[in-house]
Amino acid sequence: MELNGCHCEDEGGTEADDGETRQQTPGKGRAGDPRIDGGIEGGAAGPMEQGEPSERRARHTADSPRKSRPPFPWFGMDIGGTLVKLVYFEPKDITAEEEQEEVENLKSIRKYLTSNVAYGSTGIRDVHLELKDLTLCGRTGNLHFIRFPTQDLPAFLQMGRDKHFSSLHTALCATGGGAYKFEADFRMMADLQLLKLDELDCLIRGVLYIDSVNSSGPSECYYFENPTDPVHCIVKPYRLENPYPLLLVNIGSGVSILAVHSKDNFKRVTGTSLGGGTFLGLCCLLTGCSTFEEALEMASRGESTRVDKLVRDIYGGDYERFGLPGWIVASSFGNMMCKEKRESVSKEDLARATLVTITNNIGSITRMCALNENIERVVFVGNFLRVNTLSMKLLAYSMEYWSAGRLKALFLQHEV
Amino acid sequence: MADCSQAGSGRHSMDKSITLPPDEIFRNLENAKRFAIDIGGSLTKLAYYSTVQHKVAKVRSFDHTAKEVDGDPLYEISVQEEITARLHFIKFENAYIETCLDFIKDHLVNTETKVIKATGGGAYKFKELIEKKLKLKVDKEDEMSCLIKGCNFVLKNIPHEAFVYAKHADSEFRFQNTHPDIFPYLLINIGSGVSIVKVESEDKFERIGGSSIGGGTFWGLGALLTKTKRFDELLQLASRGQHTSVDMLVKDIYGGAYGSLGLTGDLIASSFGKSATTDKEFSKEDMAKSLLHMISNDIGQLACLYARLHNLTRVYFGGFFIRGHPVTMHTITYSINFFTKGEVQALFLRHEGYLGAIGAFLKGAEEDNPNQYSWGENYAGSSGLMSVSPDLNPMQRVRSGTFDMLEMDRLERQLVNLPLLQDPSSYIPDTVDLTEDALARQYWLYCFEEALDGVVNRAVASQPDLPQAVERAEKFRQKYLHKLQTLRHQPFAYGSLTVRSLLDTREHCLNEFNFPDPYSKIKQKENDVALRYFQKVVRSLEKLPWEQRQFALVKGLLAGNVFDWGAKAVSDVLESNPEFGFEEAKHQLQDRPWLIDCYDQWVERLKGPPHKCALFFVDNSGIDIILGVFPFVRELLCRGTEVVLASNSGPALNDVTNSELQILTERIAAMDSVIQAAIKEDRLTLVQSGSSSPCLDLSRLDKALAVVVRERHTDLVVIEGMGRAIHTNYYAALSCESLKLAVIKNSWLAERLGGKIFSVVFKYEVPPQSPGLRR
After folding, report:
1. How far is residue B110's CA from residue B113's CA, in Å, rounded to a whole number?
2. Closest listed residue to residue B628, CA positions, set B563, B686, B558
3. Closest partner CB to B220 (pick from A4, A18, A336)
4. Which of residues 289-318 of A touch B (CB under 8 A)?
5. Taking a C-beta distance cutoff of 8 angstroms, is the pair B624, B560 a contact?
6. What is the pLDDT of residue B722?
7. Burial class (CB in 10 A: 0-12, 13-18, 19+), B369
8. What is residue B24's predicted lDDT score, i.e. its pLDDT?
């Protein structure tokens, strides 16, 4: 048994799943974001504007009389395993009076965030995602989406401290694993109280909100028509009017799969540890790259069939006995068992194979979950899909192909 | 499928150093008929069907219409040659293929075979070589179909084929009972990729899914990450690594558990999630471990999703990724437990590596209808399951490069469940699993080793006129001793280790060296002596009043059971004091109350209506059967109960065999009108059990016995003797009344049960709501 003393217990670790959902935040982030502080916090995105705060929010925000909006600035953050996603609502209807009252700190934060697209060496504002002229809690403004690596969170906290962020708020809405892990750091380094919100709840609200709020511009939700035909594969808008039930697949560092039956009725079906973090982690080890963008860029130039062993590599063609076409991957990285082939592949090939392996695996687990849950609509979200058309098309393809067209893969603009 | 590398280079250099021990492998090749071969990435599995000529003991009644002379034996014993069918399976490294083919070519004489069935990824690669060497046409068979066929075959014919793997448990392997109905099940074959096959019947199976992340991914990606080329070495690396330095755990993200979802902090959130950085180096061990977890978990998860979707709970794993590797069996088991919360167990197969070869063979042998027969693993000729864990198996290094063998005998009859088992799927014949009970294991292994000299002597004595008896007996001793030593280190080698399997292994080894029935002469003599007392015993019983007679009958049954050469304590006494008689045996018996004493209930029951039909599993020959069993049976017949006497089909120790019992019954009928009438009226029937073991597996009995039992509406089962009622079936639950009786002739066992040597077990059991009790 214990071959080596230590590893025995880590076996435990096996747990594949877990899904760390956190990254995916994007979705949620947006939604939740508006809420900033304890007060409104809930912010409840779109749906809330008209209605009463939901019970659950009310719970959190003991003191939020409807009329008193939370003080600016309005933030929401999602601290994932790899990325921190920050949403900032920039009020555009500021009156002169307000402008005058606005304290210096607040003004400087607003200026800093809205006048830059990059912060420090790693923070990035996704300008193309910005939502303009939104009405939120009676205020009109723009919603900004900013991300930076979780490992730079200390620098962020330092900045918050330097800019005296704490003078403006007592609490900051946050979700994701980091909201728990770094809670003490927020308090001690930046004197900020985190209002922790449930991650899956935020995620689902975010997805629904972003779809509803974005009705004016290009459709938030879309799918690929003819995904099995590379020539005729085109992006088509999809209206998520009556979205339930849907399977929500959140691909962050890991993957969480949720079955959503209504706004408040959902469960995490399963997850897998083979997610965006695995793609990036393996790519770093295999190719020496260091960023997601770099890894994706390499993948786009590579050829996975040099790395993977296909059905035709084994059977010389289709495996007819079981109806498997020859082009199907029989063994991911299977050609790499062979020394000569290991020496003949490029880094780009390896990156591409990693991407294809991880993506197809997510597709296959998702498909099984959809069957087990009897759900036909699947929404893929999460930062892994950001600028990752390759994976999205693969997912669309595999949903369509393996289900003989019964399953539909949907994507969101803001996930990307 | 997955090999590349050293096909040509290594082979020829290795050939020179290879010498095959012809005695040990490719046995019975001269008569080999039909061949099949399964060539995988690194191992070749060869299957052939052959006939084995061996000696069997026959008894033949003398014509006793002629005048009887005192001192003439009751019947004649002869040793004859018999030919039986046997399947041979041999597994060796691909490097040996050429040498092996040469050897086969040189030794293959009698075959009329023109083709060899082939499967496995390497089949086409070696096609020319095989055709050239053997002059046989290679006929390729689909790999998956062969796999399934082989899987069905082993599940049906080898008890304890499937096991659950538990790395940290006392016994690493927990064997599963063969379920009477093996279908439906899920087979997850993890080769370079993964195939998930649902098997619904012998001929119906479907590949319901698969995954490209499999053994090839572990090997290929592992080789890239660690620069380690060999699969085994990668597993070694993985077993030493720490995945937590490479994987991002839930606690790395949350700082602890994610309680609301029930995800503990140690769960892997993202495989390789920590390696997305350029400023850190990771050890080969850690990366290999992380990779192993990633792949095992992924396969486990998919397996569970498919099992749930198709509502299947029996999930077997095979393929080179699994093949006897404790590391992968452990991670797969862990993953399945995690994803199904224990509802589904990952099952592995002892002969998993042979499935393809077995299936290919069966495909070629369809005209012989191999599925029509029952087959039994021959413990003497099979090398058994070896742990590859270096901790458990220090001999493992030595073994690599050796040949692994499986031999299966075709049984003369089809074996089925006793229809009277309460729950066939939960029936376990053996009382103690020595794989789990280390103390008992030590004792019994010691005990069998101690008794070996006596067995060897008796074997030699049984064949005074046959050549080389001494040499053969010595070979038998070496072989059995070696088996015992193997079992000391690898108790799980042949499934659960039990007293029964130790006894059966001994019988197989004796047969192997042509000692088909070492006790034949002793049995003959004892039967002869006992017969002379039969009438006297019956007469004295008849004089007793009813109550006393019932007790005397039971006591006689028990006293007869003291005469058992299989028990060392008794064989010592018998050998030193041949006068040890029936009466003396009665004095040896424990006084009532017995160790287990249901006698009062039994007598109460006898006061009620007679049983419809009693099935009696008899034990020893001589005094036991003639002076113990027959008087008891006679009383049952007089009560109006029909009796079926079930005896062994083949010899084991001094147990009475079916052919001996037929002669004895004739002789008894000649002197007893009750027995004679019962035979004439078909109220007393002799059947064979289908077994050649001193123990009894009620799930593998002659089909004809099952038919009789059903037809006669059997409502009482009597099981007699230590082997059949204590070592096995002590806890067997039957759907009718049952009587289990034995004298404990082993002080260690007696002590364990809370008694002393010659303690009596008299266990009378009535199932809930038995119609027999309703009066």
Report:
1. 9
2. B558
3. A336
4. 290, 307-309, 314
5. yes
6. 93
7. exposed
8. 64
**Tokens at B541, concatenated:** 């019983």
List, edge to edge, every strand of the sheet that includes B345-349. Answer: B173-175, B162-165, B345-349, B314-318, B185-190, B194-199, B205-211
Q: Classify residue A215 as exposed, middle or buried by CB count within 10 Å of its CB (0-12, 13-18, 19+).
A: exposed
For residue B280 the two structure tokens come to: 């850190």
The domains located in chain A, with CATH, are: 74-197 (3.30.420.510), 219-301+347-415 (3.30.420.40), 308-344 (no CATH)
Cα–Cα distance, A279 to A287 (Å, whole number): 11
CB contact under 8 A, A372 and B308: yes
Q: Which stretch of DSSP H or E encloses residue A144?
A: strand A139-149
Q: B310 near B302, Cβ under 8 Å?
A: no
Inform me whether the pLDDT recorded for A329 exceeds 50.
Answer: yes
Residue of A nearest to B302 (CA): A365
Burial group, residue B33, by CB count within 10 angstroms (0-12, 13-18, 19+): middle
Contacts of B224 in chain A (CB under 8 A): 286, 333, 336, 342, 350
Whole-number pLDDT of residue B467:
82
* Best residue in A79, A198, A332 for a mutation probing chain B (most B CBs within 10 Å): A332
Distance CA B632, CA A367 (A): 67
pTM of the model: 0.84
Residues B10 and B93 sit within 8 Å (Cβ to Cβ)? no
Q: Is the pLDDT of residue A224 over 70?
A: yes
Residues of A in contact with B269 (CB under 8 A): 18-20, 81, 177, 253-254, 273, 277
Mean pLDDT by 10 residues, chain B (775 residues): 36 42 68 87 86 81 56 76 89 85 79 84 85 89 92 91 84 80 94 95 93 96 95 92 94 85 89 86 96 97 95 93 88 94 92 91 81 86 66 41 79 91 92 91 95 93 87 95 91 90 94 90 86 91 96 92 64 54 76 95 96 97 93 97 96 93 95 96 96 94 96 97 95 96 91 90 88 47
- Residue-level length of chain A: 416
Q: Which carries the bigger pLDDT value, residue B579 or residue A334?
A: A334
Alpha helix positions (H), B109-263: 127-134, 143-157, 215-226, 231-240, 250-254
Residue corresponding to tokens 């020829």: B12
Contact state of A282 with B168 under an 8 Å Cβ cutoff? no
Q: Which residues of A touch B247 (CB under 8 A)?
A: 13, 273
- Give the rounded distance of the alpha carbon of A163 from its chain centre: 28
* Rounded (5°) CA angle B256-B258-B261: 160
**What ipTM goes with this model?**
0.81
Q: Which of A18-27, A182-191, A236-245, B416-425 has the highest mean pLDDT?
A: B416-425
Copy the structure tokens of residue A268.
């995490």
* Angle at CA of residue B465, ends B464 and B467, nearest 5°: 105
Q: What is the per-residue pLDDT for B567? A: 56
Residues B586 and B393: their CA atoms lie apart, in Å, by 48
Whether a cis peptide bond, with omega within 30° of 0, leads into A73 is yes
- State the Cα angle at A397 between A396 and A401, rounded to 5°: 125
| Separation of alpha carbons A391 and A249, rounded Å | 13
The pLDDT, as a whole number, for residue A101 is 75
Asked whether the beta carbons of residue A1 and residue B168 sit closer than 8 angstroms, the reply is yes
Q: pLDDT tens for residues A70-129?
A: 777 788 889 988 889 988 888 888 888 777 777 777 888 888 888 888 888 888 898 888
SS3 B706: helix
Q: How far is CA A71 from the centre of its chain?
A: 28
Size of the A and B interface in Cβ pairs below 8 Å: 300
Q: What percent of chain A has pLDDT over 90?
A: 36
Tell me the three state secondary structure of residue A65: coil
CA distances from A212 to A25, A216, B478 (A): 18, 9, 82
